[in-house]
Amino acid sequence: MTIEQHVWGVTPEGEAIIIYTMRNTRGSEVQVCNIGAALVSVKFADRNGNIDDVVLGYRDAMSYFGDGAACGKCVGRVANRIAGGKMTVEGIDYSLECNNGVNHLHGGSKGFANRLWESRVETNRVVFSLLSEDGDQGYPHEVVIEAVYDFDDDDSLEITFVAKSDGTTPLNPTNHVYWNLAGESSGRTVLEHELHLNASKVLEMNDVQIPTGRLLDTAGTPQDFTAWRKLGTDIDAEFNHIRDFRGYDHYFAIDDWHPYILGEVGQLRDNESGRCVTILSSYPGCMVYTGNWLSGGCPVTKSGGRYADYAGVAIECQGYPDAVNHPEFPSVLVDEGEIYCQKIVFRLGTF
After folding, report:
1. Is the dihedral of CA 64, 66, 67, 69 positive or negative?
2. Whole-model pTM?
3. Is the predicted pLDDT of residue 297 greater than 90, yes or no?
4. What is the pLDDT of residue 296?
5. Rounded CA gap, 332 and 165, in Å?
6. Is 106 a catalytic residue?
7. Are the beta carbons of 218 and 202 closer than 8 angstroms?
8. Which of 111, 150, 237, 241 has the most CB within a 10 Å radius?
9. CA 196 remoteness from chain centre
10. Could you report the per-residue pLDDT of 127-159, keeping only the tens digit for each?
11. Which of 104, 176, 193, 326 is catalytic?
């Protein structure tokens, strides 16, 4: 395993944008960047030995600031939506920015994803760190967080979030990488990709993409991924607002989840290339988003074009959306002095 680093660009404030290249003995390669602790490139071989970049991203470093897709970046403090930008923590009401219609999304427009993180190499890993001040984007108390990337010779990529707060605050970061196992430059959508999830329950959503609090059985529905299902098969179904959302943008609860225990979430695969990604996580579930609004909203891509809708799929391991307003959901609150630690693993392979 080798790690190289170089300056990719400079912000208007004169701060260096650093990109790190992690390369293993198989010739596979992962690139990460200190803008939003972003995962900007993943290259590995298909069943015929052809190596391609299989995650979405942009040509220019500065394009990673403020992109609506949050492409490959670590989002927070709280991933996903908080209803109406309102929450109550320890009896105190807080108002957050509504940056997604009537809701707060991914920690706000100046959340973790649009900050320049400190970064360093530790032997065979890259560590990004960030201080989120008390009041940052409206959230209470100070949080110090690290996003740690490990990549090994078995093509296993791990992302570990470690954080600590000086008071009770919600915390639910995730990585927002979009996969296209046919290749980022292939021009193919992910609608022919197949997904299998260890999830027999999905959150029921309302028309503004907030959970009602109910968990629905997926069996026999267009959201049943307990057996292999193509992402495009029911992309226009009415069930649970799939059509209204222009595709999948739903949270699946992982079966037999236990707090802080790494479990298998599922697998994404592409029959044409033979590539697959097996996903493990310590989080209680994952958001599946099929890139329903990528068209017109992304800067120039790594391959020099523009992404169409469904050009990539994000499988975002995280806590339940709007959990701070749903006491029946697993809590996303971190107490003073508590060590927060969650892990996501992407195992790259072929079949």
Report:
1. positive
2. 0.98
3. no
4. 79
5. 13
6. no
7. yes
8. 111
9. 18
10. 999 999 999 999 999 999 999 999 999 999 999
11. 176
